[in-house]
């Protein structure tokens, strides 16, 4: 019969009793009893626990109650423990499946906009500065995704919820985690602390004597933390490395590229529209109509982007300065990379750092080192007393000799 609704597929798989009972116990947790740790351990021992999450509704469990309780349980677990990591994975999966977030993720303070317009607008998002109405010393950056009617908002919402969990639960001194979301302000947005020191490139320009190797080590530690937690950054570049009040670098906007892929569906076929060409690994680029080798960023493409950050940090300029994206793409297609900076133009580009940079931008992803190895090498350089900071007058010399 035309127009008749087809029967719903049977969603309820057969689950082990332990997986189902564990889910029930998590949802009915009273917020105190400590036997919840045993419940979690049993849950993860049941092989079908994650499969079971798909059938929450069929089991009569409200997904929101489940994610709210699971998030509270995570707060009480030892940071970075295997159990906490597994719970975060389960939370991420559930939020992604149902397109929901724990209620506590909505920021509670009242935010007000000091300006009418966003401070910056990128391809897919705007960044706004907001103040806490009750305490104007609390300044926040709100990144709102520009999603249109024609986009698949359902799919975007699911990915957004997944990434919000990662950004909120990230916990490392070199990572800018988010405070939460502000659904009353924007449907898809993330709220983070405002970093008054701006991004890393602006910072080294303002502070020419800054210790670049130390900054680089901080960036690499942040990336290593993400990779250890199975998170690919996907858009590592200086505007996404912000400097906190103590002068330490913090990585932001990790994982967002998985969402931006679904934004602006009309222009979806424009080549390389989802990446910043000069930081992007060659295997992710469409060059001369040849589709990219890799569909998604990987930990090795992050390492390539890290090499570009190394160049920026020591030269104080973005990679391939003065070249348009099209020329950069041409250079990359010929296997070319930024030239070795002249000593006066690059404080900190010592032979040791240069060697690491070259290994990280290898054309073959497999030949690039893991970020963990890069970190060890950089730390070794720092410990061996490799020149860390430029002389206070290096920029004078640079201006004379460049
Ligand atoms: N929490 C923050 N504190 C200060 N500046 C920020 C913050 N978040 C983003 N910015 C700045 O806002 C600008 C726009 O950011 P974004 O929309 O992420 O674009 P981009 O693609 O350049 O990273 C960047 O220069 C970035 O450094
Ligand atoms: Mg950014």
UniProtKB/TrEMBL annotation:
<protein>
    <submittedName>
        <fullName>Kinase-like protein</fullName>
    </submittedName>
</protein>
């Amino acid at each position: 019969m035309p127009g008749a609704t087809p029967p719903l597929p049977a969603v309820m798989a057969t689950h082990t009793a332990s997986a189902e009972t564990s889910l029930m116990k998590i949802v009915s947790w009273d917020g105190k009893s400590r036997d919840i740790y045993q419940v979690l351990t049993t849950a993860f021992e049941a092989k079908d626990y994650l499969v079971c999450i798909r059938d929450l509704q069929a089991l009569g469990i409200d997904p929101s109650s489940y994610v709210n309780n699971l998030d509270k349980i995570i707060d009480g677990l030892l940071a970075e423990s295997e159990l906490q990591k597994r719970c975060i994975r389960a939370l991420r999966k559930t939020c992604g499946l149902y397109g929901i977030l724990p209620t506590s993720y909505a920021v509670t303070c009242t935010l007000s906009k000091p300006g009418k317009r966003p401070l910056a607008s990128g391809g897919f998002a705007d960044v706004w500065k907001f103040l806490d109405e009750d305490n104007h010393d609390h300044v926040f950056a709100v990144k709102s995704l520009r999603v249109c009617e024609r986009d698949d908002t359902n799919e975007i919402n699911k990915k957004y919820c997944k990434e919000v969990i990662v950004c909120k639960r990230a916990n490392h001194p070199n990572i800018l985690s988010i405070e939460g979301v502000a659904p009353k302000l924007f449907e898809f947005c993330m709220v983070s602390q405002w970093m008054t020191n701006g991004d890393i490139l602006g910072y080294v320009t303002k502070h020419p004597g800054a210790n670049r190797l130390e900054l680089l080590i901080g960036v690499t530690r942040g990336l290593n933390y993400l990779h250890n937690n199975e998170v690919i950054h996907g858009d590592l570049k200086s505007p996404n490395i912000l400097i906190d009040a103590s002068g330490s670098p913090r990585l932001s906007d990790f994982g967002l590229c998985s969402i931006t892929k679904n934004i602006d569906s009309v222009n979806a076929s424009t080549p390389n529209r989802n990446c910043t060409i000069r930081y992007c690994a060659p295997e992710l680029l469409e060059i001369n109509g040849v589709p990219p080798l890799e569909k998604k960023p990987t930990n090795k493409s992050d390492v390539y982007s890290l090499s570009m950050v190394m160049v920026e940090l020591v030269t104080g300029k973005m990679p391939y300065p003065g070249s348009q994206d099209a020329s950069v793409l041409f250079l990359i297609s010929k296997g070319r990379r930024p030239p070795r900076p002249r000593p006066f133009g690059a404080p900190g580009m010592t032979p040791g750092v240069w060697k690491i940079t070259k290994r990280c931008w290898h054309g073959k992803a497999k030949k690039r080192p893991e970020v963990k190895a890069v970190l060890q090498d950089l730390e070794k350089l720092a410990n061996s007393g490799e020149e860390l900071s430029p002389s206070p007058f290096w920029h004078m010399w640079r201006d004379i000799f460049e």
